[in-house]
Amino acid sequence: MPTLVLDYDYDYEQFYPGQPRQMFDKLTSPKDYLKLTAATGAQLHCSPMAPQQHCEVVFDWPQETLPGR
To answer: What is the Cα–Cα distance from 20 to 53, expressed in whole angstroms?
Structure first.
């Protein structure tokens, strides 16, 4: 199953540094990795300061990736 791994600035540094990338690297299925950054206002879990950008990524990815769209 294709998998999208999102990584946010300032989300995992304190408790889980590097884990999104580590998980991505271990996946053997088709995969995409996206780092959402403070430069675009999309830092922190689920990008509370940039909901439009977050939703575009989360909802566009399945349409672009999964068959039968």
So the answer is: 19
64 token code pair: 């672009």
pLDDT(4) > 90: yes
Query: Which tens digit of pLDDT belongs to each residue from 25-55?
Result: 999 999 999 988 888 877 777 777 778 888 8
Contact call for residues 68 and 4 (beta carbons, < 8 A): no
Q: How far is residue 65's CA from residue 3's CA, in Å, rounded to a whole number?
A: 9
Those residues with Cβ within 8 angstroms of residue 40's Cβ, 6 or more apart along the chain or in another chain: 50, 53
Tokens of 37: 């950054």
